[in-house]
Every structure is written in C-alpha cells, then in structure tokens.
Amino acid sequence: MELSSWLSLLAVCTAGAMSPGPSAAVIIDISIRQGRQHGLAAAIAHGLGVGCYALMASLGLGLIITNDPLVFNSLKWLGAAFLLYLGLRALGFKLTPSANNHPESEPQLESRSSSLLVSARTGFFVAILNPKVALFFLALFSQFIDTGAGTGERLLMAATATGVDILWYILVASAVTTASVDDRFSAYGPMLEKLFGVLIIAVAIKVAAG
After folding, report:
1. Per residue, what are the HEC states of 102-170?
2. Which of 22, 84, 157, 185 supports an S-S bond with 204, CB 3.0-4.6 Å?
3. Is pLDDT above 80 for 189?
C-alpha cells in the first residue's frame, strides 16, 4: 500500500473512531465511575473488538454478517439489550439476583468494585455487538483494497483501524480522568452517573430502532 493511501485510510479511521456513539458514552462512563485503569482496559478491549470486524472486512469475511439479515439483526438486538443493561446499571439498578432472592426487594446499587476484566469485557462487547462497525469497514476497505492485494496489506489495514481505535479511546479515558477534570466530575458524580445512564439507554433505543 502506498504511503498516501495509508494516510488517507488513517484519516478516515480516525474520523470514524472520533465520531460520537455508544462506545464513547460507555468508555467515558466506565472511566469516570471506576477510574483510569478501568477506562484504559475498556478502551483496549474495545479496539480489539473493532479489530475483529476490521480483520473480517479486510479478508472479505464481513459479508457473512452484513449479507445475512438473521445474523446482522441478532447482533443488533443483542447490542441494544447490552446497552440497555449498562444504562440501567448506571442508573443504580442491580440486575443480578440478590442473595435473599425476594421479588419484592427494591433495586439496589451495584458494587463498583468490578474487576478490570469486567471493564475490558464491557468495552469488547460494546464493539463486537455493533454490526454497523462491519458495514463501516466493508465500505471503507472497498475503497482501498485492490483485487490483487496480499495478506500483508490486508493485515496492515486491519491493524491500522485497531490501533487508531485503541489510541483514541485511551486518550478519551485519560482525558476524563485527569486531576482537573476528575475533580469537576467528582462534584457532580451521582448526577453524572444518572445522566450517562439515561444517555446510554437512549442510544440503546436508537440502536434497536435503527
């Protein structure tokens, strides 16, 4: 791949990563509520999820998802359900059965002591349960891949998309957890948690309706 083509690909991947959407809302929410390490874990895992779709698109496998309505819609609905779960959790609902298992018990605040693995898993699922990412890369890579492109060139394209996504969300997680920003968020912590919860639920509804 020529340098000029790679730079064009890099620019489009950067614009795609920076576009607002459920990923940004979820990673910002994780970073604010649970700290920088959790935000970084979610950012890296999200990039790996995006990388899966980028790799599939570069190898021509993304058509398996986009051309099969059942697979595409199943992923879309699973993604919407997952975002709804995250939104309700951010609003303070405990969505796992309580120890006493009493149906009349009130919703409880969920513990914030979740592991880095849980944060990483959340970031990965937000990406992998969004089949529109596959559509994006199929449309994008079709402009850059020649019919005779080798495996190395295809892997470079997928690696570029993965790296850009990881770096962007690392910057996002780091930015919202700097001392000055974190102090401002801390003053309005409970209100912001509710705001992000409502925002994520609104995105879930939009994903399901889209």
Report:
1. CCCCCCCCCCCCCCHHHHHHHHHHHHHCCCHHHHHHHHHHCCCCCCCCCHHHHHHHHHHHHHHHHHHHH
2. 84
3. no
